[in-house]
Structures are given as structure tokens and as C-alpha cells.
Structure prediction request, 483 residues.
Amino acid sequence: MSGFTLDAITVTRGPVRLLDAVSGCVEAGRCTAVVGPSGAGKTTLLRVLNRLEEPAAGRVLLDGKPIGEMDVPALRRRVGLVAQRPVLLTDRVADELRVGRRDLSEDRSLALLQRVGLPAEFAARHTAGLSGGEAQRLCLARALAVEPEVLLLDEPTSALDGLIATLIADLARDHVASGGTVVLVSHDLAVVRRVAHHVLVLDAGRLTGSGPPAEIDYLEAG
Amino acid sequence: MNTGLSVPSWTGVIASLLLVALAAAIAYRQRLGLTGELVVAAVRAGIQLVAVGAVLGVIFAHAGLPGGFGWVIVMILIAGQIAGRRGRGLRRARWSATAGVAAGTTITLGGLLLLGVIAIQPRVVVPLGGMIVAAAMLAAGLTLRGLREDAEHARPAIEARLCLGLSAREAFLPHQRSALRTALLPAIDSTKVVGLISLPGAMTGLILAGVDPLTAIRYQIVVMYMLLAATTLAALATARLAEHALFDHAHRLAPFSKPLA
Prediction:
């Protein structure tokens, strides 16, 4: 089981502080939700956890070890991130699932498709013809194929596909149930109340709240 | 076999300038706004070639082989600076381009000399070196531009691969391949049509100097193969070096300091 400790993380972009001395905990084997208004730094926080973003100050520990000292590709296989916008990398669905896991078996591919609510015949499809929602599901399956211990889920801001929010919540719950850790950025506060064990509230790059969902005022406001 | 050798006199050179005057006059009449540029380009080319001719004359007469190789090195350094501009905003773009041009030139020219295909003489090394450096410069510039464009436009795709645990090299490989294809296609295409669409420079020069066309093509074949090798090697070396500058130690795509030129 893998958990994070954030120690006064500051991320800057030019003169702007995307994250400002954020400290907190992501407990192993639990679902931590990150909430806050747009531009609060939620996505930046997720990117810090798999080192797509490097803090200007502070440090991040994974199971007590600084992630700055770890082999980066190995860290990213342990800590999988699913971005807000789906980006497909190959021509065929079956190949897409194997980008991060070349030895993925056919049975496992089909199981992953099923897991994200796509029918088995999708494996033979071209990725070019997929809808936005289908592409998002495929990106989730592609991340799961690597079998990460920690799942960082950045839920799409648009409510184009409400089913995606439900799917992400289900995946988060399943991942935790099987011993994994989840960090979920969500705009759907009902989902957060239902799924999260712990909530971090960000506002303008600062941590303004932290605790179990029942104690977070921000969730009540939604 | 220099029986038909005929080189224009300085009067002939000045007479040929009348053709530029004619072109400039037409450009002026058509209000193309290019008259000034045409004249400057013609005068500049004349001065540059006179200067280069004088320098080469001195090198061939006095500096010998070390002078010839020295001149090739100077060409590499200049070419690296020019090709490096194509990667504006990339870290160490000029260094990558210079090293790429140097690698392409050294291997190609060195190979030809070691295999005894061309003579080890300044009057052979300098002009052939110049052709090789020019081809390598074009390839390095196109490669850098392609890499830069791909890295900037494909950032989400590259980051998606990085997120799946791929190394920077693996994540960038599809984009590197496409940049290399773009950089190499012009050289490959011009090799395919050589002799059909245009009579290339070395062959033209030899024929003008009175050499039998069947002998001239032998030289031209060597030149084409040499240029193809230099182009490919320079592009590959530049891509490999620039790729290191695209990513940092944490396998993250570096931000670009300047917008695409």
C-alpha cells in the first residue's frame, strides 16, 4: 500500500504560485478527494505526485521516501495518472491498451474494456471513430493496464458524459477495495461525499481545508 | 582531359550582372518591392565568392592539408549556428546542430578519405567538405524544427506516454521518427530524380571543364551517396542530441523559452 506525505509544496510558473506551501497527507489504501474552484491548483497537485511537475520548494514522500530520489518511469508505473482530457496514442483500441504494458494478454485486455464499460468488440476498433466518452473510458483502461498502486484521477470538468463521473467513482471505490490508493480530483461534490475517505480543499494554490467529508464545509456549500 | 575548359573573364562576369539588372528592372516595374533585395543579394554573393576564392587560393597555395581541414571546421561551426536557429527556444539547439553537422561531416568525409575514394588534397577536401557541410546543415535545421514543432504540439500525447511509465526516449520516439522522416525526405527525393530533373553541380562543373560525361557521372554518384549519408547521419545525430535537451532529468518535457519561429 502506498501513501503520500506532502511537505510544504510550492509550485511556481513565472511569478504565479500554482501551489503555495501545501502540506497534507494521502493515506495508503484510501480515497483522497481534492476539491476547490477552477484554477485552485488541483491538477497541478496531481502532476506533482507523479513528477510531471517539479516543486520549486518542499518535498513529496511516497511511503516515507522522497519521490525526487526515485527512478521516475518506475514511480509513474506505481502512480498512474488519468488526465482530464483523453489523449489516444495509437490507431487501434487493442494497441492503445498495450502502450504502457506491451505484454498485456488478450483476456486481460477484454477484462479491462469490460471494467470501463466498453464492449469486447471494441478491441478491434479504430480509435479515430471513438466518441469523447469512449476515449475517456479507454484512457482509464489504458492506465489500469499498468496496474498502478496509486490512481490519480482527474475528472473531466465538463458534464458532457455524466456516466464518466459515475464510472470514475466506481473505479475509485474498486481500486481502494482491492488495496490501492486513489487521489480523485472531482467537481461532483455528491461523488466526493460518496467515495472519498479524506478531502483536501484547495483555493488559489493554498490548502484551505483537510479532513473527512463530513467535516468539510466546502462540500456542504455544493 | 581539360581540352574544352572555358572560364568567363571578369568582363564576362560583369556582363552577367546585366541579367541581374534586367531582373531588378522588371521587379521594379512590377512593384514587387524586391528590387533592393535582388541587388543586395547579387552584390553580396559576388563579394562573398570573391572573398572565398581568395581564401581558398591562399589555403591551396600555402596552408596545405591542415589549412583545408581548418576551413572545413570553420564551415561546420558556421553551419551549426545557422541550423541551430531552426530550433529556437530549444535548450542547447545550436550545440546540438553543430555537433550533428560535425558528426555527419566527419563520418562521411572521413569515410571517403579512409576508403581512398577521394584524394587527400586541400582542393578536394575543401569543396567536397563544403557540399557535405551544406547538406548536413539543411538536415540538422529541418530536424530541429521538426522536433521543436512536434514537442510543442504533441505535449499532451508525450505526457500521456510518460504517465504510463515510459521513459522520455520511449515517449518521444514516435515524434522523433516523424521529425526525421520530414528532414530526410527532401534529400531522398532529390537523390531519386538526380539527372532526370536537374544536372547536379559536380557533374555540371566537370562537364563544363571538359570531362567526358561518363566520367563525370562517376564523381556525381559518389557526391550523391556522400550527401545522402551526410544528411542522414547529421539528422540522426542532431535528433539524438536535441532529444536530451527536450527533457529534464525527471523525464519531463521542458517548457519552451520562445515561441515557434
Chain B touches chain A at residues 156-157, 159-167, 174, 248, 250-252 (CB under 8 Å).
